[in-house]
Structures are given as C-alpha cells and as structure tokens.
Amino acid sequence: MEKRELIYEGKAKRLFNTDDVNVVIAEFKDDLTAFNGAKKDSEAGKGALNNKISTELFKMLANEGVESHFVAMLDDNHMVCKKVDIIMIEVIVRNVATGSLSKNLGIPDGKILPFTLVEFDYKNDALGDPKLNDQHCLILELVKNEAELDQLRSMARHINDILRPYFHARGLNLVDFKLEFGRDSEGKIILADEISPDNCRFWDLETGEKMDKDRFRQGMGGLKVAYEEVLKRILN
Ligand code: C5P
Questions:
Q1: 77-107 residue pLDDT tens
Q2: Which residue in 93, 173, 234, 235 has the most C-beta neighbors within 10 A?
Q3: Which ligand 1 atom is nearest residue 99's CA?
C-alpha cells in the first residue's frame, strides 16, 4: 500500500490517497482542539490511542454486522479505510444530558434521557457546526431524501444499542457520541470517521470520572491516562 498525496486535513486526522483509487490512509494526529478550534493543544501518543480504540470498535461493530470504512490498522498512527464521500452531517447520539444539550436547553447535567436522542449538526467549521433539522438537511442537499435521514437515525440508534452495553460491561457509561457516515463507491451509506474518546463521552460507572476529551475541554489534565484506560478496558 503506497501512501500518496494529502487529500484532506481535518482537526484530528489527515487523509492520503493511495495506489488504490478506492482506498485512503487516515493519519491520526496528536492535535487536540475544542470549541470549534478556539482551544488548541497537542498530546503525544493521543493519535495512536484513538487509532487503536477506533480499530477495535470498528472490528467489533463489523462482527455485529455494522459496515464501516475500516479496512485495517496500518501502524500506530495510520488506518487503511475505504474511500467514501462524507455526508456533511454530524450525527450526535445522546443517552445522558450534558455538554451543549444541557447548555442550550437547560436540561440538568447528568440527567438520564427518557429515550435516546439523535441530533444532526452541520459539519461546517466556518459556521460553527450549527444544529440542523430535517428540512435544513434537505434544503442544503446534504442527503437525497427524507428516507436517508431516517436511515442515518436508525443506523446511529443501532450502533448505540451495540456500544452502550459493550461499554457498560467495561465499567463505562456511554453518555453521548458523534458519528459520521459516508457513501462508498457503490453509493451505499456506511459508518466512517472514528469512534474514540475524542468524539464520545465516557463516564466511569463507579466514580463518575470523565474518561474523554472533556478532560481537555474543561482543563482537567490526565487526558492520555484516561484514553489509555479506555483502550485497556476495550482490550480486556
Ligand atoms: O458538545 P456536545 O455536547 O454537542 O457534544 C456531543 C457529543 O458529540 C460529544 O460526545 C462530543 O465529543 C461529540 N462531538 C464531536 N464533534 C463535534 C461536536 C460534538 O465529536 N464537532
């Protein structure tokens, strides 16, 4: 597999073309950003941890029948992925209120939601990733039709139904997370991006300790130790 030219650089990853037109290499960066890039830092080893955590989760989901862009982990910081056209919608899944949900709607932090909430945010840094409703998604032509929005919601709920007990068995409460989806070369919508403590919130079931990027957002320190602990529990 030959790593060729850079095709995209995001806040946490770089994507490179390869000698196979249907395959890209994702490089997981050590960079940390929060508040739409307003807060920035770097933590050596963070990219490798997210690559390993995502690899294990994509493999586990594949065993459960959830198709993703994951092909293989290449080395510590690189993942081989199917090339997809990313759908510019961040699909947010919430089991417990916190973060922007609590801030925007006044729902008490830590309140268990009566049902799993799925929200759409516009993947658009220049606009600050605003909330979308279904009509916005259609007007912006982010998807082809309403059925595709229902498909995104049902795929996200299905993934939550797998991930939530998986993490519960490992002593972690899956509070909320963000997913991205893309279209493969045949137009099929599959899971893409990464699943890691950068885009999930995990609270330790016993202590309530935050084991995710909120440690950086809230200036708590101990980010790498927390990510290492998440990986350890996944591998056990
Ligand atoms: O900030 P907010 O409460 O909306 O985040 C909800 C979930 O989505 C969190 O797990 C957060 O890590 C994730 N998220 C993300 N990327 C964004 C926005 C949210 O990974 N741009």
A1: 999 999 999 999 999 999 999 999 999 999 9
A2: 93
A3: 3
Please state, for a pLDDT cut of 70, what percent of the chain lies above it. Answer: 100
DSSP string, the chain: --EEEEEEE-SSEEEEEESSTTEEEEEE-SEEEETTTTEEEE-TTHHHHHHHHHHHHHHHHHHTT--BSEEEEEETTEEEEE--EE-SEEEEEEEE--HHHHHHH-PPTTPEEEEEEEEEEE--GGGT--EE-HHHHHHTTSSSSHHHHHHHHHHHHHHHHHHHHHHHTTTEEEEEEEEEEEE-TTS-EEEES--STTTEEEEETTT--B-STHHHHTT---HHHHHHHHHHHHH-
Closest residue to atom 3 of ligand 1, CA basis = 99
Selection from 143, 49, 132 nearest residue 87 by Cα: 143
What's the confidence (pLDDT) of residue 167?
Answer: 98
Residue 3 CA, ligand 1 centroid: distance in Å: 30
